Amino acid sequence: ARGDIARNKDARRAALPRPPRSHVRARRRSRRDAMTDPTESHGNLFPIFLLSLIQFFLVPITIFRVGGWLLGDGDKAARPAAAAPAVAPADASSEWGKAAAAHAARNKPTTSKRIKALFRGFNLYVSVAWAMSAALAVYIAYSAPPEHKVFDPYEILQLTPGADASAIKKAYRTLSLRYHPDKNPDPEAHEFFTGSITPAYKALTDENSRVNYEKYGHPDGKQPVKLGVALPAWMFGQDGTGPYVLMFLVAFGILLPMFFAVCAIQRMNKYGGDAGKVLRQTFQHFMMELRPNLALTKVPKMLSVAMEFINIPFKRDQEEGFRKLAVSTKSEYDSKDQKFMKRHPAILKAHMLMLAQACRKTNDVDASLQADLKTVMGLFPRLAEEALKITLAPVNQLGYSFMRPGLSILEFTQCVTQAVAPSARKPSDKPGQVADGLASLLTLPHVDERTAVNLTRKKVKSLADLLATPGPDARASALAAAGLSARQAADVEAHLRFVPSVKFLTATVETEGEADVVELDAVTCRVTLKMTRGANARAAEKDEDGKDESAAATASAWGRDEACGLIVRSRDDLPPLPFCTRCEREEGWWLAVTDPAANFILSCRRLTADVVAEAQQSPKGKQLELKFNVPTAGVYSLQVKLLSDYWIGVDASWGAKVKVLKRTNEVMEKRMAAAAAAVDEEKSAKAKARKARLAAAAGEGEGVGESGEIASESANAAGSASDSDDLSDLDSDDDSDDGLGRHGDDNYPSEETGTEESSDEEEDDAFFANGEKKPAAAAAKLPEAKPAAAVAAKSPEAKPAA
User: Which is more confident, 766 or 535?
Assistant: First the structure.
């Protein structure tokens, strides 16, 4: 019986009307918003905020990257570019041809390589950021919160807007019978009645509530604005997450920044250099190995002591491969030096690997040493650059550095880049120079020692001689006579398009504003540098120097890539290096003023790619300056050098003899007298220019008169004034005490410019007093002027002068 009663009760309850679900959900949401923190209602905006923050940085970066690719491709298409590294050589039979073919096969673009390039390096971070943005966009689209239900009493009472009072009461009575708690025990009905029906009836029947609803949209009047921070509620410690939020803030807001700061400080203490990628112990080792007369063969001995090389472990399975490598490069080091042979095994291994690269014997390196070879050659450009900076450090008060160590390091970087053995570069008879004739020929494709010797027998003793050979046919015949095939000669001709040719047009060493150079003077070396690339550009330069009939056409064509050769701005514009595939090398140029007799570099600077391109494109070359202090008195034979760390046999030099006088009182007095004479001459020139302007102004004033008689009268007065001695003295000498105000005196204050031209002999008060007295004295010496009435009678229309 009890079960029947319960079932009947549930059936009656189910038969009762239920309130609309939208009103119930809106009521629950409003109650929850009122009970909880206002930030919880805005937590769903956090994904939108995060997406906006990511896109704020991601969109400009993407546009910059894509625009750079597009503009870069367009720029490369507009100017000549290097042969693509994936282009195979015409002949792959020689050692160079095999290496070039293998290099082209490795760099051949494929679909997989393109896809990997999109997700490598910085592109990987961009791709991950776009993936996060897409995920956030999908989450926002599918998790958008329902719109907030606006309180509408007419909709709740199921009335049309503007209903009268009787209709409102009837609708309220009808809904009360259905949802009143006494009629309907359902909790949702009770909630709907008290939360929606009653406020709606009150809003439409009570006068104050109706006014509030019509004015503010709510019967209770103006509602407070809820503000949020677009962050989820759990970040404010709700639902028991307070301790975890605190731990998160401490870990990522305090401890993590401190960890990164400590790591940065430790890295700064551990690494040095411009890029901060060289161990500080390496600098100490380099300075210990530095010698004032460091030879070319000793450079690998200096570079191998880098701490980066010492940290490479020497494994037991590498002993046999190291022994074979030491035997193959035996001609490049002194094997009888017991002190050298007892060095750290890691140092010896790095030494032999660098020699293997320079001697084109990387294929002979044992498999156990290939990984170390890649590591050593990857570190070589960075370490060589830092070693060069150490050698260029000043060693005396004048700021000079040793010349021989710097030149040797540059020469060894050339050997490593072009894979030419250092022993192939023989020292020249001239101090500070190297005979690079045979070594420069070894940098050409398919040219070995035998072919280079055959070329020297054909009067092609250097790379410069081959560039100077007129016409590709003549060069092809010379190469064929040396033993190269037609395809190999074609590879050589393609390589010659990149080879630079440097020439100093002018070079002067002088003190600014002085005729002589005195010891301890700060002098300026000005050079005009002209560069071309390729055999055709070299021939055009030769025709212009010889003043041939086509010289004018060639000179006018300079500045275009067809005449001055290819423009090299980056590593991508250089030809491939088949024997130097394990290190990234860029073309570098150094301009230096050297004293070979004293083994000093007086001043030097590195040229940027833009300066080199301007020196190549400009018909008149590029003018550069170097400043330095001259040494003690004597005659010095200086050399201005342009050095490359990439090419062999292209360095240029210009000899300049400089006579330095002793700094004596007689010489300094002579300088002071010359400076005073220059100042006087400048003042005289200014005075003459001022007189010329005054004369021109006086001529214009005489021709502007409205009456010819007044003009004639003025001319007669000017003639009589010019006959007087006093007035002529005013115009003859600038230092005279006579003058007509500021027009006749150089020392009078200038009102046109707003400045005062005062002399050193007079103080300011005396100067201004003198300026006021001179016009009166000059007026007393002038001849008696005619009465103004007479002039007015002749010309009644003439206006009196001011």
Answer: 535
pTM above threshold 0.90: no
- Which of 572, 564, 553 lies closest to 529, judged by CA? 564
- 592 with 604: CB under 8 angstroms? yes
CB 405 within 8 A of CB 413: no
Question: What Cα–Cα distance (Å) separates residue 621 from each residue in 506, 528, 531, 545, 618?
Answer: 10, 6, 7, 14, 5
* Residue bearing tokens 């041939």: 548
In DSSP notation, 493-550 reads HHHHTT-EEEEEEEEEEEETT-SSEETT-EEEEEEEEEEEESHHHHHHHHHHHTT-TT
Write a three-state SS string for 335-369. CCCHHHHCCCHHHHHHHHHHHHHHCCCHHHCCHHH
Please tell me the distance from the alpha carbon of residue 16 to that of residue 199, in angstroms, as a whole number. Answer: 22
pLDDT tens digit string along 149-200?
667 788 888 888 777 888 888 888 888 888 888 888 888 878 888 878 888 8
Assign 237 to helix, strand or coil. coil
* Long-range contacts, 63-70 (Cβ 8 Å, 24+): 65/122, 65/123, 65/126
What's the CA angle centered on 207, arms 203 and 210, to 5 degrees? Answer: 40
Q: How many CA atoms lie within 13 A of 141 on its CB side?
A: 6
Tokens 């410019």 correspond to what residue? 753
Looking at the DSSP assignment, which residues form a beta bridge with residue 506? 528
- Residue the block writes with tokens 């005054």: 694
